[in-house]
């Protein structure tokens, strides 16, 4: 019993199944629970019946355990560690495994649903809160993690938990305490610690959660859990799993791994990767893609920003619109209703030139409200800035009227007095998103419709004069009629100055000095100035103040008196002006929230008007966005390259088409029927080959840019485009050197590729440009080959793969959903002309040699190169055909590297033909020497 108590102490929350002979016995409290739950007879260990106990036969224990797990209990198995026959003493027993609902791996699990074990990590609070969630199905090894940020992080997490419906939840003990709730095993969570998700939300989320398990608080920390996770996967960095910058998610995942280790779940090898996923209303673009696609910044710092999509699309009238365009390009929508709402609005405005121009004109005078407001807040705004703000506010009613001229739903929402419907539910229940980046995210404020801020405009123009001085200190900023005392003081000052003018006139007459002047400077105040020549005529009562080279300055008691009067009046009115200005500032800041809301509204209007303007100006078309796996466009153009070619007069951009369809069959959603109805051969992967400079990279980027534009709600440069929503774009383009981060280019490339292969979904768009270039040819080729197969078999995402590895074109025969495309070129007397057209088929191989010929390489080198190439081609085709046959026949023979090394083909053939048993050692040696010679000759 001592062993029992020790084990029980180590696992207080478990029912302890203790192996005794051919039975598993339970004691005390455990026995009572088990007898009740399993309808077992309760017996006792002792005569007084004070030590209840019950037991199950060891061979039937599984079935009892499953019943308890399904009810949410945790079970520890305490086994004999020694053979009872071999020891005379008490048999040593230890807990060998802890079974929990989330770690159950038995045949009794329903095949159609996952058995999720969830782990939660919360950091920060309020706006800086971050909630990480890791989900593991131990039965399949599917391991994924996600993260939510901001004030709603906890609610979003609950939402996601509700969607995944884990059977067991892991939480830090501190968190669990905060969660509070009913007793084990059924969790009835009530309040959350951040934000107040209604009880019902938490209840709904936790429905199905059979048990929650507290982990020591130190386990759920990045310091402990993240390195643990890295060790578990045996990687240096989690970046390749998409966890870069997602420490909270990684922590949750690490804590989960800790739990598995602690509960002694054997065989964790199948949990060899984790996938980071995001479920937001946005098309997710990671930093690599944003950079590679040059959405907002040129690829190479210092290059002209004209190469960016932002630059090409920026026809916004206001700075707010420009900022929103930028933000939108980084977070295109992934919500059909939202995209449609925008496209409807763009379509209407694009087709109505007078109204569109009216709207854009109305916004022409809108300055940077947000920034001006910022300056007001920082108290660095002078009277002129405040007036500029007023000028902007003055445009608002006109802009509102202009918006109201349109009928589309989004225009009505933007122009309306009533709150826009900011929350749009999508087809997939439970996924709620906010409209674009603006309005809806206004920190939960209730929108009051288009607030044209007329009161603030009136306030400013009623307070300030029309043309104020730059600085408040100069005075004369506040309009007459605002403050009675100020007006009075100003009157006083004015009459004072009039009096001075009168004095000047009188003194001129009295002294006969025509050039006598009353003047002012800040050191001496008011004085009478008389030129040296006239100083003899100065009367007695003048007091000399200062003598200059050409003039003398005097004062009189009368002058002094006026001086005091005027200066005090000025001082006092300065005070009053400052007070009034400060008051104005305060009132503007009080309305800062309203102004920001309106600024966001203006930004959205501006953005849509900009899209409409571009659509009309450039003849772009409305993309047909749908929930399918399609990506089709006809006569599509790369918006940036096309524009640049136009501007530089560099010819015409050659339009190209594409047609891909994601392989969604396994995703089990409604659209799978659609794809099943289509011919199975619809390609999801396009492999693009062709000569260097042929336009492969441009074609890839064009596809991604059109997708980004379409999901931003912008029209696209194509004759027609059909797009099934893309959840994420992955790119691996070019060799971006990242030596600064201490990783070689190839390492970077592989990390990026790993991120793609680990986290792309069937709805993603994957661009791979010249993958594998950073390493030895066969390495790179093999990796590329395997990656394409993985994308084809496991992911099904729409993929564009540009490559210089011709060998990959052979994949077309092997993979049903892969098709070869090539960029074309034409040889002319003057050299190769790149036609930039993309057509079906693999490229001819000899372009490289042709280019070399045209470049003037010696004739014999060219001839030899042709020879070698033929050799390669022939051997390769045979080899690969054979290898593929072998592979298809299910033979275990691996597709060796040899298939790519055709020069050794002859040798291989000979080796295969040799009858080893019939060789004498001498013959064997000769053969070896011969083969070696041949090898030498071949290379
Ligand atoms: P690759 O990746 O095949 O080497 P790129 O995509 O880098 O080729 O394109 C090479 C050049 O051809 C670029 O300067 C690009 O502007 C031009 N180009 C590419 N596609 C087109 C097209 N469809 N029409 C006109 N010019 C194009
Ligand atoms: Mg290229």
Set down the secondary structure blueprint.
Layout: H1 2-10, E1 15-20, E2 23-27, H2 28-38, E3 43-44, E4 52-57, H3 61-70, E5 75-80, E6 93-99, E7 116-123, E8 130-137, E9 142-149, H4 153-164, E10 168-172, H5 173-179, H6 199-206, E11 211-215, H7 222-233, H8 247-262, E12 275-276, E13 284-285, H9 287-292, H10 309-313, H11 319-330, H12 336-350, H13 353-364, H14 369-377, H15 383-404, H16 409-415, E14 423-425, E15 432-434, H17 454-463, H18 484-511, E16 517-521, E17 525-531, E18 543-547, E19 551-555, H19 557-590, H20 592-618, E20 624-626, E21 630-636, H21 639-648, E22 656-661, H22 671-677, E23 685-689, H23 696-712, E24 720-724, E25 728-732, H24 745-759, E26 765-769, H25 777-795, E27 798-802, H26 811-814, E28 818-828, E29 831-840, H27 847-854, H28 859-888, H29 905-913, H30 921-938
Magnesium ion is lined by residues 696-697, 769.
Can you walk me through this structure?
This protein is an alpha/beta fold and 939 residues long. It is built from 30 helices and 29 strands. The strands form six sheets. Strands 13-25-26-27-23-28-29 form a seven-stranded mixed β-sheet, sandwiched between helices. It has a six-stranded mixed β-sheet with strand order 3-4-2-1-5-6, with helices on both faces. It has a six-stranded mixed β-sheet with strand order 11-10-7-8-9-12. Strand 1 (15-20) and strand 2 (23-27) form a beta hairpin. The longest helix is centred in the middle third of the chain and has 34 residues, at 557-590. The relative contact order is 0.06. Mean pLDDT is 80; it is low at 181-201, 419-447, 666-680, 736-742 and 891-901. The site of adenosine-5'-diphosphate has 13 residues, from helix 23.
């Amino acid at each position: 019993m001592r062993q029992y108590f020790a084990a029980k102490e180590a696992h207080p929350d478990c029912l302890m199944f203790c192996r005794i002979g051919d039975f598993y016995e339970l004691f005390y409290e455990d026995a009572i629970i088990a007898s009740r739950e399993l309808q077992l007879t309760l017996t006792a260990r002792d005569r007084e019946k004070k030590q209840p106990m019950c037991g199950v036969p060891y061979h039937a224990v599984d079935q009892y355990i499953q019943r308890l797990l399904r009810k949410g209990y945790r079970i520890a198995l305490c086994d004999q560690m020694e053979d009872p026959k071999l020891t005379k003493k008490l048999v040593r027993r230890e807990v060998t495994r802890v079974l929990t609902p989330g770690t159950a791996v038995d045949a009794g699990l329903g095949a159609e649903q996952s058995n999720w074990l969830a782990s939660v990590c919360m950091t920060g609070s309020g706006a800086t809160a971050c909630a990480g969630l890791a989900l593991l199905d131990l039965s399949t090894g599917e391991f994924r993690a996600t993260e939510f940020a901001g004030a709603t992080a906890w609610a979003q997490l609950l939402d996601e938990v509700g969607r995944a419906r884990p059977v067991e939840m892991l939480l830090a003990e501190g968190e669990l305490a905060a969660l509070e709730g009913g007793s084990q095993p059924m969790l009835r969570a009530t309040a959350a610690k951040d934000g107040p998700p209604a009880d019902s939300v938490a209840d709904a989320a936790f429905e199905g959660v059979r048990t929650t398990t507290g982990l020591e608080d130190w386990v759920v920390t990045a310091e402990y859990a993240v390195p643990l996770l890295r060790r578990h996967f045996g990687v240096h960095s989690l970046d390749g799993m998409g966890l870069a910058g997602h420490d909270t998610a990684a922590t949750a995942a690490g804590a989960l791994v800790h739990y598995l280790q602690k509960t002694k779940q054997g065989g964790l090898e199948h949990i060899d990767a984790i996938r980071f996923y995001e479920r937001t209303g946005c098309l997710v673009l990671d930093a690599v893609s944003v950079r590679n696609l040059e959405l907002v910044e040129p690829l190479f710092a210092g290059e002209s920003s004209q190469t960016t999509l932002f630059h090409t699309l920026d026809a916004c009238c206001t700075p707010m619109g420009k900022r929103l365009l930028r933000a939108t390009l980084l977070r295109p929508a992934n919500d059909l209703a939202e995209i449609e709402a925008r496209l409807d609005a763009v379509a209407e405005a694009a087709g109505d030139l007078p109204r569109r121009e009216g709207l854009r004109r109305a916004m022409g005078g809108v300055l940077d409200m947000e920034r001006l407001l910022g300056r007001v807040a920082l108290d660095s705004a002078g009277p002129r800035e405040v007036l500029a703000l007023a000028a902007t506010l003055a445009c608002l009613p006109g802009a509102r009227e202009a918006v109201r001229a349109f009928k589309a739903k989004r225009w009505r929402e933007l122009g309306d007095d009533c709150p826009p419907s900011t929350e749009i539910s999508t087809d997939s229940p439970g996924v709620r998103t906010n409209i674009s980046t603006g309005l809806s995210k206004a920190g939960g404020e209730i929108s009051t419709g288009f607030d044209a801020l007329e009161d603030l405009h009136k306030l400013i123009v009623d307070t300030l004069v029309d043309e104020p001085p730059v600085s408040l200190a100069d005075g004369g900023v506040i309009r007459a009629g605002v403050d009675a005392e100020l007006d009075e003081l100003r009157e006083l000052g004015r009459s004072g100055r009039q009096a001075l003018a009168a004095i000047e006139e009188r003194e001129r007459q009295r002294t006969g000095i025509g050039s006598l002047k009353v003047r002012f400077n800040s050191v001496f105040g008011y004085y009478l100035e008389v030129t040296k020549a006239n100083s003899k005529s100065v009367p007695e009562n003048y007091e000399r103040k200062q003598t200059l080279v050409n003039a003398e300055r005097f004062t009189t008691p009368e002058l002094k008196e006026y001086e005091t009067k005027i200066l005090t009046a000025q001082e006092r009115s300065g005070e009053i002006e400052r007070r009034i200005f400060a008051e104005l500032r305060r009132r503007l800041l009080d309305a800062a929230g309203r102004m920001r809301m309106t600024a966001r509204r203006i930004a959205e209007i501006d953005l849509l008007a900009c899209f409409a303007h571009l659509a009309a100006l450039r003849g772009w078309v409305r993309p047909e966005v749908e929930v399918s796996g399609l990506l089709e466009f006809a006569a599509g153009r790369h918006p940036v390259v096309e524009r640049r070619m136009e501007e530089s007069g560099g010819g015409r951009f050659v339009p190209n088409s594409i047609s891909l369809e994601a392989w969604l069959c396994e995703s089990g959603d409604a659209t799978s029927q659609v794809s099943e109805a289509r011919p199975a051969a619809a390609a999801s992967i396009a492999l693009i080959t062709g000569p260097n400079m042929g336009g492969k990279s441009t074609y890839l980027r064009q596809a991604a840019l059109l997708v980004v534009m379409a999901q931003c709600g912008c029209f696209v440069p194509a004759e027609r485009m059909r797009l099934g929503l893309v959840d994420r774009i992955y790119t691996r383009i070019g060799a971006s050197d990242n030596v600064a981060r201490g990783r070689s280019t190839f390492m970077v490339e592989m990390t990026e590729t790993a991120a793609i292969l680990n986290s792309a979904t069937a709805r993603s768009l994957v661009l791979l440009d010249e993958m594998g270039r950073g390493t030895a040819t066969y390495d790179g080729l093999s990796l590329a080959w395997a990656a394409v197969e993985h994308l084809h078999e496991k992911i099904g995402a729409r993929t564009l793969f540009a490559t210089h590895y011709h060998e990959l074109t052979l994949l077309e025969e092997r993979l049903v959903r892969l098709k070869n495309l090539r960029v074309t070129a034409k040889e002319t007397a003057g050299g190769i002309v790149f036609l930039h057209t993309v057509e079906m088929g693999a490229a001819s191989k000899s372009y490289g040699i042709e280019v070399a010929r045209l470049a003037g390489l010696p004739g014999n080198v060219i001839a030899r190169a042709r020879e070698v190439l033929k050799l390669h081609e022939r051997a390769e085709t045979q080899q690969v055909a054979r290898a593929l046959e072998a592979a298809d026949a299910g033979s275990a023979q691996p597709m060796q590297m040899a298939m790519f090394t055709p020069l050794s083909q002859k040798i291989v053939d000979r080796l295969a033909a040799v009858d080893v048993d019939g060789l004498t050692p001498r013959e064997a040696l000769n053969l070896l020497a011969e083969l070696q010679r041949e090898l030498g000759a071949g290379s």
